[in-house]
Amino acid sequence: MRRTPLTRPAPPPAPVPFRDFEEEPRPARRRRRVLTVFTYLLLAASVVFLGRYLHGGDGDRIVVPAATPLLVSRHPSAAPSKAAPSTRVIVRAAGTSGSFEYVTGTGPVLGGAGPIRRFHLAIEKPATFGAPSSFAREVDRTLGDRRSWIAERRFRFQRVPVAVHAEFTIYLASARTSERMCRTGGLETGAYTSCRLSQKVIVNDDRWEGAVHGYGAPLTTYRAYVINHEVGHQLGHGHEACPGRGRLAPVMMQQTFGLKGCVANSWPFPNGKRYTGPPAP
Q: Which end of the chain is more exposed for a tag (fewer CB within 10 A), N or C?
């Protein structure tokens, strides 16, 4: 019997070293890590910038005093509550409530000489978005103008928060609320004009938003006039009449009732000198 010679099996193939074929080359991995870190840093910087942008206008917010909100007072000489203000932002629609909220923050000192006469700013709630800051800017701009009362160099003005003592308060009130407030001091406005009571300058919001028909000047001119006119009463000035057709109306003339041939004027010192008219009859 013939024997078949034994054959050795073929040796197994040499093992192939393990390699992740999806792995990127080292330079590519390094570039990807750097790009990822840069992306995270850019996102973080964007979040910080956005947060500062959204809160950048919080300097003059409207707040409600911690005590009961100020209601229409039957005692014109009563001062607003000195309770510390809260910090919530008011964003509401316009309306009539008869109660007020106060602008926070301290304004710049307006004027170059004399003692500082401090004032509060109050706006009837609920206030439209942006109205309080806009009102504060226009009042500051008006009283700080070199043609305004500071031209006398006898005193300066400064807006302060309600927690700080002030000589008077400037109110922006709806037509009906301003009428009721003025009536407490014996003044009948017909819900049409603004007025001044003891320690209170009361601006009719209808006039603030729309001036008067036939005024013949921009709304900004009327707004500066009404602030200077009513603050002029606070400073002790009475009404004056038109000095002649075609001439400037004195700021203490009741321009809301018509110019009587005069030209609209917002300023007590329009040309660097005190401009007046004859006493009103």
A: N
Give the C-alpha separation, 171 to 194, whole Å. Answer: 10
The token pair that represents 141 in the structure block: 């701009």
Where along the chain do its domains lie? 59-238
State pLDDT tens for residues 186-234.
999 999 999 999 999 999 999 999 999 999 999 999 999 999 999 999 9
Using DSSP's 3-state secondary structure scheme, residue 257 falls into: helix
Right CATH for 59-238 from 3.40.390, 3.40.50, 3.30.70, 3.30.2000: 3.40.390
Query: By three-state DSSP, how is residue 259 classified?
Result: coil
pTM of the model: 0.67
Strand pairing partners for 157?
Answer: 110, 117
DSSP annotation of 32: H
